[in-house]
Amino acid sequence: MPRIIIKEPDQKPQPYRLKINRIVTKIGRAKDNDILITDGSSSTYHCKIKRVEGGFILVDSDSTNGIKAKGTRYSVIDLKDGETVQIGDDIDLKFSLSEEEIEELSSEDFKSQQKACFPKSKKPKKEEVQDSHDNDEDEKEEKPVPKKKSSKKTNSKKQRDSDNESSDEDEDDDDTRSSSKRRSRRSRSSSSKDRDRQRDERPRRQQQENSNSSLSFVIFIILAVLCFIAGLAIRHYLDHDMFIFTK
Asked: pTM for this one?
């Protein structure tokens, strides 16, 4: 049977024994845990020991102070024979196996599941990115084409020709201005439409997020109740070697 020794500050070490086929062993300050600890640096449901193929692992249950091995915080730690890990700030957990248990586990294929705990990175919101794109589009406007001045000439024929050319150029300039204005109006109308679409989509996203959060909460409550009932049944079986509903 695997042996666990819990050492809390200013208290005597507490030994525990587990069956080698026990799947989950919960550790924390709550009374319904399998291993109860009282130190203030531990959480109500701090961590749990899980039986996997080829050995055991220690999994953090989203605790405040986490679990550590050699000063490094992990979300999952592989438990080996003679391994000592820290729970919270000042609690030591020593895990050991007998030679027979080591031989039995060696026949199974063990895959390391140890993972370090990294801080979560904050991603920029989609709404802020879309607003910045809209502002960039509004700032981009085409500059009007300047008019070209016709040079005065003494010769009457050349003056007429130049006047005709200047009139043609003015017409071209008017066409370019009108086209640029149309483009700017189209870009503004398209940007305004995009903004209206985004405003309409925001309440829909909020409703979807609220419905998803409520559904996940209900599922969490159901799973918590099932785990609690399973834990009571397992505890009753371990204490009395019989099922709850047997006479």
From this structure: 0.48
